[in-house]
Amino acid sequence: MQTITDKEFKRLAEYIKSNYGINLTEKKKTLVMGRLRNILQQKSFNNFSEYFDYVMADRSGEAAMTLVNKITTNHTFFMRESDHFDYFKKSVLPYWSSVSQEDRDIRIWSAGCSSGEEPYTLAMIMADFFGAQKPFWDTRILATDISMEVINKAIRGIYSNENIETIPKEWKRKYFRKLDSDNFVITDSIKNDVIFRLFNLMNQSFPFKRKFHVIFCRNVMIYFDEKTKMDLVNRFYEFTESGGYLFIGHSESLNRQETKYKYIMPAVYRKE
User: Fold this and answer.
1) Model confidence over 253-263: pLDDT tens digits?
2) To 5 degrees, how large is the angle CA 78–CA 83–CA 86?
């Protein structure tokens, strides 16, 4: 059974930190080893150095993406941290729908969208909020993640009965279609409102032409060290419209002396 040496773990951790911002501390060593061991066995690598050389040599990027998929959790569910969605519905949407009457465009970014539950939840909230007026608004959501595996799952939009237990019954009726005895699929009307893209938050430049009214980046920065987190938050700030919001996870916090965002409520910040 292969074990990862201190030198190998340091090499892996430095690569992951440099390219994806994820801070793999010594506490994660056993977890990482357990998640990668199957790959070493399947490809008959004798040690983690051989595997890492293989990742570095793969020009397609598929090996690196498999590595990222293995070490990231991608755990999410519908209505996670529901008070955020309540605030989005009761405060954020009324504000932006009133000040955006002219262009009727609300730009939302779900950064670190995982398997799609967060952006689809936002899309359903907006469908309810705008009702018959929705066709006259551009409410498409950009949803990004570094894992192609979870993006493909999100695009399929298939969720088990257990996955959708937490959503309102009215949403199940309006926005889901029964696929089989165990699964439901998101309706096209909601699917078409979410644009899924592969994107690394550690990219030095963001390719967006316009700023966002709302950015959700929840339970992503828990994997980053303080400097990486604040560098990313400052870039978010640059791409947030004045009056726009940043939502982070409840297990995360921002140093209010180091961010220009104004604290609104737990894990909700605003650009004034």
Assistant:
1) 898 888 999 99
2) 90
